[in-house]
Amino acid sequence: EIEIINEFQSAIHSKMLNYVLNNELDKSDSTNLQVNLLKQLSNMNQINLFELSLEELEAYHDYLRTIKKYADNITRTA
């Protein structure tokens, strides 16, 4: 489960990073939705998934699925 979550999270982070870089967005602009999501994903990379229970991992994975939908939406409409 942890490996799947790590790969999924990395894919979302990469998508947002590419979007920010390709659109030359200011990574210090705290008012930009895409930049804020990228920062949130970067911070989430610091979470030690091995410390989470299976139930917490499943909830975290569900949360990432929601973030992916959000990321797909804001990169498509921005």
From TrEMBL:
GO BP: negative regulation of cell killing; response to toxic substance
Gene3D superfamilies, per the entry: 1.10.8.130
Keywords carried by this UniProt record: Toxin-antitoxin system
GO MF annotations in UniProt: toxic substance binding
A Pfam family the protein falls into: Epsilon_antitox
Domain Antitoxin epsilon/PezA as annotated: residue spans: 1-74
Keyword Ribonucleoprotein in annotation: no
Stated name of the protein: Antitoxin epsilon
Organism: Enterococcus casseliflavus (Enterococcus flavescens)
Organism phylogeny: Bacteria, Bacillati, Bacillota, Bacilli, Lactobacillales
